[in-house]
Structures are given as C-alpha cells and as structure tokens.
Amino acid sequence: MDKRIILAVAGSGKTYHICNELKPLKRNLIIAFTNQNIKNIKDELIKIHGDIPKNTRVMTFSKFIYNFYLLPYESLIQEQFFATDFNSDGVYMADSPVRRLKNSKGKEYTNPN
Question: Is the pTM value of this prediction over 0.90?
C-alpha cells in the first residue's frame, strides 16, 4: 500500500484491509480519528504481525498534527512567551465546538456531532 486514503462506511473492513496490506519492512503511518479506532488498528496489527511493526506509527489525527506541526516549534513558543518549565503533551480544547452557526443571511447551520 502506498500513500492511500481509505474512506468507507463502518464495518466495511477498512481496519482489516489496512493491516493486511501493510508492508512491515517499509515505513508506515496510519492515522485515524478516534482512540477506539487506534486501539482496533493496533489490536489487528498485533493479531496479524505478532506486534506493531517497528517502522509503523499509528496515531490519531490530533496527535499527528501535534507531533508534526506543533512539537517542532515548542521551543520557539517557549522563548516567545518566556515560559520556564514548559512541558507540553498535546493540545486540548477548553470549549466544545460550536454546534450552530448563522450565515450572513441569518440561516442556521447545524453540526450534528
């Protein structure tokens, strides 16, 4: 499998396909949205390969963004804000996302999540 995005409905076999098509000697990055999806993928990898292959990283989308886009710049953030003992382990949202938004005409958009 090479640089693929797999989109399908629940129960369609995405996890099985990803884990069975994975080439354990190549570098692999598997990104999913929920911790439960990550657990399922890791469990399937262990079932198929005996362990998570050495060159394979499995993480949530949030962790991917943090590790590859924020973490490399944390020292700069620390310098800019004169933060001592700056020790970050991720990004957290203080407030829940807005579920209802109004457009310029006053019509409402609803986020069902």
Answer: no
